[in-house]
UniProtKB/TrEMBL annotation:
Pathway: Amino-acid biosynthesis; L-histidine biosynthesis; L-histidine from 5-phospho-alpha-D-ribose 1-diphosphate: step 7/9
UniProt source species: Streptomyces himastatinicus ATCC 53653
Family matches, as HAMAP family: HisC_aminotrans_2 (MF_01023)
Modified residues (N6-(pyridoxal phosphate)lysine): K229
Cofactor(s), by name: pyridoxal 5'-phosphate
GO molecular function terms listed in the Swiss-Prot or TrEMBL record: histidinol-phosphate transaminase activity; pyridoxal phosphate binding
Annotated protein name in UniProt: Histidinol-phosphate aminotransferase
CDD domains: AAT_like
Gene name per UniProt: hisC
Residue ranges occupied by any Aminotransferase class I/classII large domain in the UniProt entry: 28-358
Reactions this protein catalyses: L-histidinol phosphate + 2-oxoglutarate = 3-(imidazol-4-yl)-2-oxopropyl phosphate + L-glutamate
Length: 368
């Protein structure tokens, strides 16, 4: 039988496995940081209306520049993220993963490098690899905050072309302060200058304000967002960025023509009409996230402070064995490979209760 490695694939892809959390059929799935609440029925109806309208013109290519959608996203950011932005500063694609890929195709690539501070979102490294961009793993402190001095030093030495800062960070939940972003931005400009990408996929769940205002006057700073989490629309595949208009112009050089289908644009526009209802679910999830942190600590777990819709907890001698025990109790969480730790997504109150019961059982077995 022919295997992948028998094919004439690129050398750097040899022996690698595709990214993806297990999609197992278990009662409680808290492993991929999805929003547990289905879209509200009035929004489902609005999507059907908007998609029906779009369907009447599916013989035509969609708006290549997605102007109406980018205008809607710009309004959303202006209203919620602390800086007035226009559609010329916003770009949208199929999930923020595609936004990140377009950025790396534009600013990374063969002979160039990107840096992230690990543990962090593993797709930053994987998309770098996929675009032929060299990957540099930067340091973090023991409490998972970014070690600013060490980070600036490695930026000065290695002079990466792209710097990733994830706030709140996945999988640790740690938010990054504006002063840290500014320090790294200055270091990156002095070293190269390079593009600094702030991945704010979980921003709406944070106690801290968005880092969006920092893009003003900083043409090499990009903020990446998604509708997969706060908008409860992971299945939609809609991510976006905000940056200087020149960055938006630059990614046009690599985007596929008509990359964002008319159906996607129509659905995202419908979701934006229901922003306030969807942000109400975010409030409920923040309350549940804080409860998870409290109760896990009361059970005796070591829990990392979280500004996201998930919580990192431990410590386990063998995190994978702990993951398996929770799965045996019908609860799927994520083993991100952080030694001694697992990550749980905040679910509905009932799902979280089931998770907490499973952890209590796990801790009992551990101390028995
Ligand atoms: C930090 C971070 N960025 C980006 C993404 C990708 O989100 P999407 O491609 O669904 O927009 C995720 C998804 O889990 C994430 O955790």
């Amino acid at each position: 039988m022919t295997g992948i490695d028998d094919l004439p694939i690129r050398d750097e892809l040899r022996g690698k496995s595709p990214y993806g959390a297990p999609q197992l059929d278990v009662p409680v799935r808290l492993n991929t940081n999805e929003n547990p609440y289905p879209l509200p029925e009035p929004l489902v109806e609005r999507i059907a209306e908007r998609v029906a309208e779009a369907a009447r013109q599916l013989n035509r290519y969609p708006d290549r520049d997605a102007v109406e959608l980018r205008t809607g996203l710009a309004h959303y950011l202006t209203r919620t993220a602390g800086l007035a932005v226009g559609p010329e500063q916003v770009w949208a694609a199929n999930g923020s993963n595609e936004v990140l890929q377009q950025l790396l195709q534009t600013f990374g690539g063969p002979g160039r490098t990107a840096i992230g501070f690990e543990p962090s979102y593993s797709m930053h490294a994987l998309i770098s690899r996929g675009t032929g961009t060299g990957w540099i793993s930067g340091p973090r402190n023991d409490d998972f905050t970014i070690d600013v001095e060490a980070a600036c030093q490695v930026i000065a030495e290695r002079k990466p072309d792209v710097v990733f800062i994830t706030s709140p960070n996945n999988p640790t939940g740690t938010a990054v302060g504006a002063e840290t972003v500014l320090a790294l931005y200055e270091a990156a400009q002095a070293a190269k200058p390079s593009l600094v990408v702030v991945d704010e996929a979980y921003a709406e769940f944070s106690h801290r304000p968005s880092l969006l205002p920092l893009i003003e006057g900083r043409p090499h700073l990009v903020l990446s967002r998604t509708m997969s989490k706060a908008f409860g629309a992971a299945g939609l595949r809609l991510g976006y960025l905000a940056a200087d208009p020149a960055v938006v112009d630059a990614v046009q050089l690599v985007r596929l023509p008509y990359h964002l289908s008319a159906v996607t644009q129509a659905t995202a526009l419908a979701a934006l009409e229901h922003t306030d209802t969807l942000l109400g679910y975010v409030d409920a999830l923040k309350t549940e996230r804080d409860r998870l942190v409290r109760e896990l600590r009361a059970i005796g777990c070591d829990v990392t402070d979280s500004d996201a819709n998930f919580v990192q907890f431990g410590r386990f001698e063998d995190a994978h064995a702990a993951w398996q025990t929770l799965l045996d109790h019908g609860v799927l969480v994520r083993d991100n490979g952080v030694p001694g730790r697992l990550r749980v997504t905040a679910g509905t109150p009932t799902e979280n209760d089931a998770f907490l019961d499973a952890v209590r059982e796990l801790m009992k077995e551990k101390s028995a």
